[in-house]
């Protein structure tokens, strides 16, 4: 349900913006898992994921 509410607010975003947000979210989760919940790992994962998401279909 939260995902539906979150994505409905993104209707006006471009595909690149949605990819960046999705990449940051996935990267944050992956960073948190890989570093055992470290704040630095979570933020780093979000940054890397956001960058990768932004580069998709450039």
Automatic annotation (TrEMBL):
Residues 20-56 form the Glycine zipper 2TM domain. It comes from the Bacteria. This is Glycine zipper 2TM domain-containing protein. It comes from Rhodoferax mekongensis.
